[in-house]
């Protein structure tokens, strides 16, 4: 276990996005989303909006630069919900459909900027995207209402605007998968690892002492390619993470039930949750939409 070098203060209140880093959880659900099609369990029929989960993705900004990690199938809806109008680049964790299928909705950001959008990730993921969306990589260089992308295969640490970003190779079935570590001004601000069954030694070394860890916590019982809640929390403890959010969640338990018995510096993510990092002593601001029961949808005669 790594001794935490700071006291983390969690402030749950509204705040503007800004430096050094702010994050919006665009989606916190597993590959099928929640509610599931055709499921009438208590979570899929819940009126708590925190139990309605789009596929996993986050938006990062420091007030000047804006980045996406993954393009979920609901990307357009996520951006409309959060008022996102500009994206400078997209980082991909891996090639599974729930993290890539929203790719075509990047066309709006190409139209807005007037230039192709950089996409970064494991080489295997970029090859898969070029196979699925060949029109985005072939033909005229200038966007004309269609998405245009410039791929950059990631193999080592790189600079992304104001951030130094480190790929975190993790084990997730047979597909090449990265998490990402964002650093600035000597601070390990964020490790985002939404799909993972185990850390590689490289990932362990890089992410030690991270301030915020957003990590796969699929469900309470084990899974062959994902982390359970308890497994994720053990990783957080070993890393000495200051604050932990569990994401990529199934319908096996509600937000309220999943939140019980968590340590003081851990929370369950939900769609629309916002984090903001402040200056030392590392106050983590956390805020989400006003909780209110959602009316149950009923068909009209």
UniProtKB/TrEMBL annotation:
<dbReference type="InterPro" id="IPR036866">
    <property type="entry name" value="RibonucZ/Hydroxyglut_hydro"/>
</dbReference>
<keyword id="KW-0378">Hydrolase</keyword>
<dbReference type="InterPro" id="IPR001279">
    <property type="entry name" value="Metallo-B-lactamas"/>
</dbReference>
<dbReference type="GO" id="GO:0016787">
    <property type="term" value="F:hydrolase activity"/>
</dbReference>
<feature type="domain" description="Metallo-beta-lactamase">
    <location>
        <begin position="54"/>
        <end position="248"/>
    </location>
</feature>
<protein>
    <submittedName>
        <fullName>Metal-dependent hydrolases of the beta-lactamase superfamily I PhnP protein</fullName>
    </submittedName>
</protein>
<dbReference type="Pfam" id="PF12706">
    <property type="entry name" value="Lactamase_B_2"/>
</dbReference>
């Amino acid at each position: 276990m790594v001794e935490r070098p700071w006291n983390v203060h969690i402030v749950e209140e509204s705040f503007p996005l800004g430096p050094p880093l702010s994050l919006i959880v665009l989606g916190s659900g597993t590959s099928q989303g929640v509610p599931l099609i055709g499921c009438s369990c208590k979570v899929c029929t819940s009126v708590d909006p925190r139990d309605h989960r789009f596929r996993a993705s986050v938006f990062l900004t420091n007030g000047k630069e804006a980045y996406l990690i993954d393009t979920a199938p609901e990307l357009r809806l996520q951006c409309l919900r959060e008022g996102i109008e500009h994206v400078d680049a997209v980082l991909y964790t891996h090639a599974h459909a729930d993290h890539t299928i929203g790719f075509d909705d990047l066309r709006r950001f190409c139209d807005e900027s007037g230039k192709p959008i950089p996409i970064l990730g494991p080489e295997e993921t970029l090859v898969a995207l070029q196979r699925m969306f060949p029109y985005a990589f072939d033909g005229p260089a200038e966007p004309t209402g269609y998405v245009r992308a410039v791929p950059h295969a990631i193999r080592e640490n790189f600079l992304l605007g104001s951030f130094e970003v480190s790929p975190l190779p993790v084990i997730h079935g047979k597909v090449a998968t990265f998490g990402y570590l964002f650093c600035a001004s000597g601070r390990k601000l964020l490790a985002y690892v939404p799909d993972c069954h185990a850390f590689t030694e490289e990932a362990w070394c890089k992410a030690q002492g991270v301030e915020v860890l957003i990590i796969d916590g699929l469900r309470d019982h084990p899974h062959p390619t994902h982390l359970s809640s308890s497994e994720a929390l053990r990783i957080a403890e070993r890393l000495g993470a200051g604050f932990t959010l569990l994401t990529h969640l199934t319908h096996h338990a509600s937000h309220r039930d999943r939140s019980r018995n968590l340590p003081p510096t851990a929370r369950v993510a939900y769609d629309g949750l916002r984090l903001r990092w402040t200056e030392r002593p590392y106050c983590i601001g956390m805020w989400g939409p006003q909780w209110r029961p959602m009316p149950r949808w009923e068909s009209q005669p």
